[in-house]
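Write out the 3D structure for:
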Amino acid sequence: MRFIRYAAAVVVSGLVAAGAQAQGWPEQVRFGGFGQGFGKPYGLAVLAIAQGKGFIADEFKGTPVKLSFEYFTGTGPAINEAIANRRLDFAQYGSLPNIVGRANGLPTRIVTSYGYTTIFGVARPDLPVKSFKDLKGRRVAVAKGTVLHWAFLKALEGNGLTLKDVTLLDLATADQLAALTAGSVDAVIGSSVLLSLRDKGLAKVFYSSHDIGPKAAGFGAITVTESFEQRYPEATQRVVRGLVRAAEWLGHEENREEALRIWTRSGVPYPALRDEYAGVALKDVFNPRIDTFFVSQYRDAVAFSQEQKLIRSGIDLQQWFLPRYVDQALDQLGLQGNWPRRDANGKPLEG
């Protein structure tokens, strides 16, 4: 993580020189998000909707600000490197790379949740794998350093296993699909893109976080760099308001079909996306609040990352989170009642 520490020092130095004052509009706002390994210039979750429906672009109408969107095949670790190299202002990516980046000095602030994603476990159809316990002695592929890696480790622990019980292979999504098809791995932990193998009869699903609930799902945030947020608070507010508008639009069931079609531009097949969100309210999935539930998820993930020696030190969550932008957006849009605040278990506290 030497590159992150070096780049973080450069960014902080630039911030001090700038005097942390609001300086009008930025010339450009650069967004990054996790891709699905298909090399498409489109992504998933709330950022893709905000891009596809023009919610953020609407916020900057009448200004000279340009917007750019980039979706990374290398997902979270690649996004951390892009932030470190000052290629991004905002990023949508998973909690584990969020945490690893922050723990290594990456100057980010969390401005809103991007919701949660369903984690799937699939195995070769000829193997007697029916649960995580059956992975003992098996070759399992996952993209290390991602929220999928975190979910995999949590599920192993929950089933009384450790990394010593499996052979872990670090593979990106496209390579996972090829490896499972070729029989060079026994199982893969990943996102809904794995369901395309199920539909072809090349894999069977033995695990879905959908059956357990949001506490077992993948989750993450949309971050802004400290330098951008401090120099451009009005632009930051407009971006977050555009993201909240996208989340509100997603919450209307009549928009579900259009949302699925927008997400297919990432390369993920329509049936996989349809099945991932079947039976769940998108309004609940894409709750943008930084509330007790969201903070507790990060607190658990930070503690778990320390236990697993993925990071060496803890993180000051109170300093890292910036809930005022999403709270102000909810006020401005009259949406405070749309998403009740939740307790640490995800249960509504009001409304």
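The beta strands are 28-34, 66-72, 90-94, 108-117, 120-123, 139-142, 167-170, 187-190, 204-208, 218-225.
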